[in-house]
């Protein structure tokens, strides 16, 4: 439907339109594991901003149901398609 939005003391009339989100992308990662860090290689090239890729990597390795744990840092290098995931605690 129609909505009115207040933007900097001006009213803008907007209309909501449904849209379809793209399906998620599945990809395979190659990992080398140490006590506190995981080296990830062959990260696929996706047409998303680098910070989104860092967020995706962090979420993937944080998931407890898949053996993950709290992530301290994600160092992602788009050019080499590698990342280093550092966890808060070794394990």
Protein described:
Strand 3 and strand 4 form a beta hairpin. The chain has about 90 residues and is mainly β. It starts with a strand and ends with a strand. The chain contains 1 helix and 6 strands, in the order E-E-E-E-H-E-E. It has a domain at about 35-85. The model has no long low-confidence stretch (mean pLDDT about 80). The strands form 2 sheets. Strands 3-4-6-5 form a 4-stranded antiparallel sheet, covered by helices on one side. It has one helix at about 50-60; strands at about 1-5, 10-15, 30-35, 35-40, 70-75, 80-85. It is elongated, with a radius of gyration of 19 Å.
What's the short story on this structure?
It holds the Pfam family NID. The chain is mainly beta.
Compute the number of helices. Answer: 1
Uncertain runs with pLDDT below 50, 5 residues or more? none
Helices and strands, in order, run as EEEEHEE
Rg (C-alpha, Å): 19 Å
Strand composition percent: 35-45%
| Main sheet: strands, sense, barrel | 4 strands, antiparallel
- Mass-distribution shape: elongated
How far is the first residue's CA from the last residue's CA? Answer: 51 Å
SS elements, strand count: 6
Helix share bin: 10-25%
Which secondary-structure class do the elements indicate?
A: mainly beta
Mean pLDDT comes to 81
- Please identify the oligomeric state: single chain
How is the largest sheet built, in terms of strand order?
A: 3-4-6-5
Domain NID: 2-73
Protein name: NMI protein
Pfam families: NID
Organism: Haliaeetus albicilla
């Amino acid at each position: 439907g129609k909505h009115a939005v207040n933007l900097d003391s001006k009213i803008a009339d907007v209309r909501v339109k449904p849209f379809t989100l793209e399906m998620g992308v599945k990809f395979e990662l190659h990992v080398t594991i140490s006590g506190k860090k995981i080296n990830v290689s062959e990260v696929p090239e996706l047409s998303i901003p680098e910070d989104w890729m860092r967020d995706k990597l962090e979420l993937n390795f944080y998931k407890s149901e898949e053996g993950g744990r709290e992530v301290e840092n994600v160092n992602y290098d788009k050019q080499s398609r590698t990342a280093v995931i550092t966890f808060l605690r070794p394990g």
